[in-house]
């Protein structure tokens, strides 16, 4: 019997902004990309709408209740060292209660949550070492889809 070839999977990333326009990011643990900054998100389940996935994953990971508002873009993410391939769909989400704070709901998967501006995230792109601090889908988001500084933030406001 022939071995099964790896297949691409679909990930969904929720871009959640605070009143200052900063985006919620967490430090990954225990999986590919450990130690890098990520948006809340996860795997799209069979038969699931990607807006539903963004809402579900955000609640599971942060305890935040959000409403998915807009599909932003997608990236093609090939993790060569891990032999993994993802298509990541980015979804803009809004907190239902702007005062609610994110919590670490999955301590084996996420070290911490913090709010960072697009400019702060892009600062990690300035050096080779910095690129290792952003999860590959975010690197590809900036390199392939939103090359101009401020363009992601501008798109989220539309």
UniProtKB/TrEMBL annotation:
InterPro entries named among the record's database cross-references: NUDIX_hydrolase-like_dom_sf, NUDIX_hydrolase_CS, NUDIX_hydrolase_dom
Top-level taxon in the UniProt lineage: Eukaryota
CC per GO annotation: cytosol
Nudix hydrolase domain: residues covered: 7-140
Name of this protein: NUDIX hydrolase domain-like protein
GO MF annotation: an example: 8-oxo-7,8-dihydrodeoxyguanosine triphosphate pyrophosphatase activity
Keywords recorded for this protein, A-Z: Hydrolase
One Gene Ontology term from the biological process aspect of the record: dGTP catabolic process
Keyword Protein biosynthesis in record: no
């Amino acid at each position: 019997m022939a071995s099964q070839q790896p297949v691409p999977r679909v990930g969904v990333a929720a871009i959640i902004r605070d009143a200052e326009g900063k985006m919620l990011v967490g430090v990954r643990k225990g999986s590919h990309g450990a130690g890098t900054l990520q948006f809340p998100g996860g795997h799209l389940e069979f038969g699931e709408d990607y807006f539903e996935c963004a809402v579900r994953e955000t609640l599971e990971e942060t305890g935040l209740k959000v409403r998915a508002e807009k599909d932003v873009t997608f990236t093609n993410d090939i993790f060569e060292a891990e032999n993994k391939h993802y298509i990541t769909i980015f979804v803009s989400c809004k907190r239902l209660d702007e005062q609610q704070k994110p919590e670490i709901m999955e301590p084996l998967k996420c070290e911490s949550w913090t709010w960072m501006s697009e400019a702060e995230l892009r600062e990690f792109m300035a050096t080779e070492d910095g690129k290792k601090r952003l999860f590959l889908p975010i690197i590809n988001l900036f390199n392939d889809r939103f090359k101009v500084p401020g363009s992601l933030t501008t798109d989220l406001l539309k």
